[in-house]
From TrEMBL:
Residues 175-255, 266-382 form the Hydroxymethylglutaryl-coenzyme A synthase C-terminal domain. Residues 2-165 form the Hydroxymethylglutaryl-coenzyme A synthase N-terminal domain. This is Hydroxymethylglutaryl-CoA synthase. GO terms for molecular function: hydroxymethylglutaryl-CoA synthase activity. The keyword Zinc does not apply. Keywords: Acyltransferase, Transferase. It comes from Pediococcus inopinatus. Its EC number is 2.3.3.10. Belongs to the thiolase-like superfamily. HMG-CoA synthase family. InterPro entries: HMG_CoA_synt_C_dom (IPR013746), HMG_CoA_synth_N (IPR013528), HMG_CoA_synthase_prok (IPR011554), Thiolase-like (IPR016039).
Amino acid sequence: MKVGIDRIRFYTPRWYVDMAKLAKARHEEPGKYLIGIGQSKQAVIPNTQDAVTMAANAADQIINDNNRDQIDLVLFGTESGIDNSKSAAIYLQHLLQLRADIQSVELKQACYAMTAGIQLAKDHVLAHPASKVLVVGSDIARYGLHTAGEPTQGGGAVAMIISADPKILAIEEPSAHYTADIMDFWRPLYATEAVVDGKYSSQEYIDFFDRTLTEYQTKTKSSLADLQAVIFHLPYTKMGLKALKSVLNRTDERHANQLLREFEYSRIFSREVGNLYTGSLYLSLLSLLVNSENLKSGQKIGLFSYGSGAEGEFYVATLQTNFQTAIESGSIKKVLEDREELSISEYETMFNSQMPLTNDNFVTNDKLDSAKFYLAGQKDQQRLYRRREV
C-alpha cells in the first residue's frame, strides 16, 4: 500500500520587508543578504497571528466535507508553541471544527518536528488504511532587530494530509536518522528570540546531511543518480546550496547540474518568505513542485530534514500520477503575490508589537488582519482565537 502526501498548502501573513532595503538600513551591502544569505524578502508576522492561527489558515485550505470526517489524528510540529502544557493541536482541532473523537498532539524537536509528524502519520495510516492524518508545521522565526540573525527571520505554516493512495507523493521505506546532543541553537523558556551559534550550526547541518544521506544509500543500495532532485530544510536558502554542493562529487557532471537546477526551483518560495522552522523543508517541496519544469510522475525526490539540538533525517518520496493537478499551483502562488511591502519603520513597529509572554490582558490590532483565523488577544491568561466568516 502506498502512503504519502495527498494534499498540501501553505500560509504566511500578507506583509513582508524587502531584504535589499533592510540591508541598507542596517548599513550592510545588499549582496550580503541577497546573495550571501540567499534571501530577497522576509515575511513579517503581525500580533494577530501566531503558530496556531497560521496553522489553521494553512490547514483550512485542504480540509473539506470530503475528508473532514476521515481525519482521526492531528500532529502539530512547532518550536513556537504557545503553552507549556496544552497542545497547539487542540486549539487547531477546535478552530477547524474537526471531530471530537480524534487524537491531537503537539511535537517538538526544533525544525525537525514536522518530519517526525509525517513519519508517525505514515505509520498510523499503514495500520489504519481508511484514516487521514492532518500534519502541520507552523512557526515564527525571531532573532531580534539589529541582530546577526535578523536577516534569517520569517514565519508561516505548511499543512498536509497524509493518506493511503496519495495524489502527490508516496513516501518510501526506509529512512535514515542521526541524532546528537549539541548546542547549536536553542530558545530558553523565558525568551521569544532564539540563541544560535551560526557557524557551528551550519557545520553540523552539513555533517548531518552527509551522515544521513550516506546511511540511506547504504541501507537501500541506492545512489545520488537515482534522484531527480534533493531538497532541504532552508533556514536561509544559501545553507541548502552549501549542503548540496558538498555531495555533488558523488555523481557525474550532467546529473550534478540537474540537481543544482532543481534546487534553484526549490528555493524560490523560501527566498520570498524566510525561515519557517518546522515548515521550511516542505515550503521547499512546494516550491519545487510548483516551479520546476522537469518533474514527471515516477521520479524520486530526496528530502533532508534538520532540527538543531540536533536531529536529522533523509528520506525519499516518489511523484505520483497527475501530481501536478493535485498541487493547485495558482492558489499557492497567490499567497505570495497578494502580499504588501512594509517600510523599515513599519516592519520594526510590527515586529515589536508581538503579545508579550506575561499574564497581562492584551488586545491585538485585528482590524488590520483579514485572515480567516486570527488572535484577538489575551484575557485572564487565555488566548482568544477567532474565526472570521468569509
